[in-house]
Specification:
The protein has 331 residues and is of the alpha/beta class. The longest helix is centred in the last third of the chain and has 17 residues. 44% of the residues are buried.
């Protein structure tokens, strides 16, 4: 079982022992409703120091009554007449969300050192890059959501709101708007792309997480019963999950549990990349996604690399970057 699910489930288990914390006053609409009925915009918070001539701006936006933040990187050089093509980067799981974007000096500097090489490289490639903090990450509001079993479903709402807010920024070409997600951010990206439809021209996922949350939670529930179970046995973790599904307006059979289930509803082509021996998120997840894309008649490309890098490095990073820049430019 992948490392990310273990950490998420462990936090959920601790909350369950204390009683599941309910979010008050929010009945969540379906993700697609955000696109048709929501209104989102960015507000400039500050300009960060430029790096390699790449301007860096911190922006704020609001979703579900929560103030959220994002970093926008502007490529160096003269902007195209129609504006810069824009890439939204949806980051992966972090074990300490409130400290996710802080540097070694204790300063908030989204997206933090972990993804700096990736986002800076796409900016050097001629893309404006927007990196949203999810709710509860860095200084974005909504810390309790980071402990939810379906945290990435809530983060999908932040990703959609961020994408829609990009339309309020002058100098971005929304006719060339793309989305990339790493690890947990891959699931966030699939949900967001499904809701946004053809507004996202092409997507990409690196080291995407797969299914298995229910099986893992059930394994935790059965630990004290040595594998024996029946319907009347209390299951705090699954009760918490059921609460979240109700709060999200979803049923147990919903595709939100497994974003792969509804790839036939994604209109944009997707590039998929993964390391064969990734111990955090097994490459089988990317192969599963590719198979579903193929069976659905969707346009995709898949690359499985040797090795175990969860976030590509060295020559593999250079190749992954080159493949996806070409992929976005082709679409």
């Amino acid at each position: 079982m992948r490392q990310e699910v273990k950490m998420l489930a462990a936090v959920t288990l601790m909350l369950a022992c204390k009683g599941f914390a309910q979010e008050v006053g929010i009945r969540q609409a379906a993700l697609a409703d955000m696109v048709t009925s929501g209104s989102y915009s960015f507000t400039l918070v500050r300009n960060n120091p430029s790096t390699e001539g790449i301007r860096r701006q911190v922006l704020s936006f609001e979703v579900d009554g929560l103030r959220q933040y994002a970093l926008l990187l502007w490529p160096a050089g003269k902007s195209p007449d129609q504006g810069w093509p824009v890439l939204q980067f949806n980051h992966g799981f972090h074990p300490d969300p409130p400290r996710h974007g802080f540097n070694a000096r204790g300063e908030s500097d989204r997206p933090g050192d972990y993804y700096r090489q990736t986002t800076q490289a796409f900016a050097r490639g001629g893309f404006a890059v927007v990196i949203p903090d999810y709710r509860g990450h860095n200084v974005s509001e909504g810390g309790s959501y980071t402990s939810h079993t379906l945290a990435d479903a809530w983060y999908s709402r932040d990703a959609i709101a961020c994408f829609l807010a990009m339309g309020s920024v002058d100098g971005l070409d929304m006719d060339r708007a793309y989305m990339l997600g790493h690890s947990m951010g891959g699931a966030v990206t699939l949900r967001a792309m499904r809701a946004l439809g053809d507004q996202v021209k092409a997507g990409a996922v690196w080291s995407i997480i797969g299914a298995g949350e229910l099986a893992y939670l059930m394994r935790l529930e059965l630990a004290e019963g040595l594998g024996e179970d029946h319907a009347k046995v209390s299951k705090p973790l699954l009760d918490g999950l059921r609460h979240e599904l109700r709060e999200l307006g979803l049923g147990v059979a919903s595709g939100e549990l497994y974003p792969f289930n509804k790839v036939d509803e994604i209109s944009a082509p997707i590039s998929i990349q993964h390391a064969a021996d990734d111990a955090s998120t097994p490459a089988a997840a990317s192969m599963d996604l590719a198979a579903r894309m193929y069976l659905s008649g969707k346009v995709y490309q898949l690359k499985i690399y040797p090795g175990s890098d969860h976030l590509f490095t060295g020559e593999q990073f250079a190749e992954a970057l080159e493949r996806d820049i070409a992929w976005f430019r082709a679409h």
